[in-house]
Fold:
Amino acid sequence: MTGTEPATDSAQTDVPAAPTDGASLTDVAQHTADYARAWGSLLISEATLAKANLVRLLILALIVPALALGILLSIDALLAALLHRWLQDWSLAVCGVLSLNIIALLATLMLLRSWWRSLSLPRSRAALSRFIKALQ
Structure:
């Protein structure tokens, strides 16, 4: 070998030549169509599953408040029965349970109000206001 001759060593790796015919483009088109079909099938199956789960979520969203109301009424009835046994008067027992419910409702509303204030990010807004005033 003189160095100017092309190497024809058998250990040389074969590099595939660029396709010149339309067969490989047909393969690419076929694979692309298969890919699109698979995506479409996946999308349809996921949408079907999502629809089924949405129906289940809606049903449970209606059942949970009913269960919570039933639990609350049961607790109220138990408290009224206990208060009646202690006070020997149904009207006082019912008024006592009603008073406890009103106190619980007011406490819940106060908690919700304080949590709502934190959602408005008061410290961040105040810091941003100070920053903007400092820039002016």
